[in-house]
Every structure is written in structure tokens, then in C-alpha cells.
Write a structure and sequence with these properties.
141 residues, 34% helix
Amino acid sequence: MKAFFRLDFSVATPLYRLTGGRIGGKVQGLPVLLLTTTGRKTGKRRVTPVGYFEADGGYVVVASNAGFDNHPGWYHNLKHNPRVMFEIRSKRASARAETVGHDLRARLWARLTELAPGYGAYQKRTTREIPIVLLHPEAKA
């Protein structure tokens, strides 16, 4: 199953870029952004399509990993190096990634499951608490 997701991502990213997000631009009812992290072991840039919504002046992404019992690789990468890049359609920006604390997570999780109820099923599928990450865009100098 995980191999399917990797294959899907390898196809989804170029299609997203080629079509400006018209293809591959939705997941679980959420719009998609392309998140670029730096591999914690390899130092290579890794691009992953993830669903998002806007809140608190930033972009909220969820490390659901489709409800698997381990965090997705991109989450481990941004925990190691919180400086990330993201693309929304043709817009590219850098950001600082922050895993939100308990109170904010509760509020954002409620909003997430209102927008995309399928994430509730992901949480039921796993014993881990699914992290919520807020991307704080950085102003250009």
C-alpha cells in the first residue's frame, strides 16, 4: 500500500506543476500544496503533495500518512529542519514549519474534520496522535 502512495506522488507532482494544480489539486476535499523538505539523512530535497487549509496567518498541513502507524517521512524531515518551501498552484514561498501544541491542535483538528471528514477515519485507524503542522510563510527580503 505504501508503495502505491509513493508511485502516486511521483506522478502527482509533475502533473500538479504542469497543470497549475488543476490535476492533483485536491485530496480528501482539501486543496493541495507541494511541500518541499530537506531529507534528514540524505540532505536531498523531497517534494510531497499534501492537503492544506488556511488558518492563523499560515497554511495547515496534516501528517496523517493515511492513518498508518508511523509519521510520514516529510514530517520527520521538517522536525529535523523546519525551513521548508511550498507551492500552491504557481506560487512558491519559503516557510517555517511548526508542529502545533495541544490546544491549537484541538481547534485545527475540529476545523480539518469539518472540511475533510476522511481525516477522522485516519485517526481511528492509528494509535498515534496525528500531528498538525502550521507553515508560517516567510517574508521576502
